[in-house]
Amino acid sequence: MKRTFSISLFILVVFALLVSACGTEATPTAEPTQAVVEPTEAPTEVPAEAPAPTEAPVAEPVTIRALIRPDEGGNVAKYAAQFEQETGNKVAVDFVGWAEIHDKTVTTLASGGGGYDIDFIPSANVVEFASGGWFEPIDDVIPADQRDQWLQTVLDLYTYEGSLIANPWYSGGAHMAYNKDILTTAGVDPASIKTWDDFMNACKTIKETGAAEFCFSPSAKYPGEFYYNVGSIVAAMGGEFFDADGNPVFQDDGMTLKAFQLMKDGIDNGYFDPAGVALDDYETLIEFGTGKTAFLLDSTWSVTNANRNPDVSQILDKVGYILIPGEGSQTSGGYLYAGGLGILKTSENKEVAKQFLQYLTQEEAQKQHAIDGANMPTRVALFKDADIATAWAGFETLADQLNYGKFPPQFTWFEEWRRSLATATQEVMTATKTPEEAVQWLVDETNRLKAQ
To answer: Do 148 and 220 share a structural domain?
Structure first.
């Protein structure tokens, strides 16, 4: 009986609720106005949420891979870590030594990119690497209205067939440094050294006074010593190696012969260290840093570190700088270099890679690279930066040297030609060939390489 009552009561309650609901819907009030608004607002909310699924992949962190030369000053490591912290995207870098990076890069490119997103492009190999069609045009990384903020010569260097293929990272070149104490002991005024004849006279005085074991040690071990040996000496004398088509012309102006003769005379007279034939530019820096030699013809990084880095030099704050000696009306000269970072067409993360290139080449990063890594910037404003000038003793002279420099010729066979020049230089230094024989052999080598 109690159960029947409960069920009956339940039915009555439900019935009452239904009647109440029906009565509410039928009552004419202001509610219909709201009812009209609700259906029209609901659809507008759907499109607002619709883009959400497409945004998710953009926010998904990725890892980009890079193949780069040694990390001078910890520049890449520092800004890769900051980039990861700010964006969530990681940067995995394989650093390869200077002696191996060219061949490693060629092998990597030829095999389809090796899974790398970013690849280092040295200034000497722009055409060689770009001609393979491996690199993505990145004109949008440096828009046209911002290009006046960058060194135009470096932008031009990394522009191939009308497109920018690498973001300029740093610049530099060959420089001449000297040991202040040695020149003072020998009574040589560095300001008097304007030509290579002046240089050789200074070397004669240094030898006669016993102020140093050697005046100079030419580095001739690798093809890259082109910058710090015969290559920049010929350029400083006003000589040229090729015409616009890559034909040899160095046998005509006499400057390559004079540079080879200078090497021979320096060795024969005891001015130059004959061990330089097997030394690279880092090893001649170490030799200079011990006080064994009076002069150093080397990179921006080397001549700067000779003055301030106790790991490579014992003559801290005793290094001065002069322009590389010239010849006749030619005040100075030498070869420049630069480093650029390109994005491979095979990269699956091109946009993130572009973001990292911009991050690594921003003013703050280039300033750190200059102060801690001893590399000249590629942003124009930084050449007047007070902090860089303070950190680099002699920065004004080092920066001025770049005004007299030029980039190496851009032929696909230039790397192999540099090997031939290195061989010719070594054979002159070891008296295997006379300077005249070395010039003729190099002419024949040039024609052979060009004809391949």
So the answer is: no
* pTM for this prediction: 0.83
Q: Which two tokens stand for residue 237?
A: 């004398």
Q: Let me know whether 301 and 441 are in one domain.
A: yes
Q: Which pair of tokens denotes residue 401? A: 């040297």
Amino acid at site 226? F
What is the C-alpha to C-alpha distance for residues 387 and 421, in angstroms, rounded to an integer? 39
* Parent domain of 137: 60-172+336-402
Listed residue (392, 216, 217, 215) closest to 317, CA to CA: 392
At 390-401, the pLDDT tens digits run 999 999 999 999
Q: How far is CA 147 from the centre of its chain?
A: 18
Pairing, β 90-95 against β 63-68: parallel
Report pLDDT digits (tens) over 221-239: 999 899 999 999 999 999 9
Q: Does 320 lie in the same domain as 239?
A: yes
Residues 209 and 295 in one domain: yes
Phi and psi, residue 169, nearest 5°: -110, -45
Residue 51 makes CB contacts below 8 A (sequence gap 6+) with none
Tokens representing residue 269 in the block: 């007279």
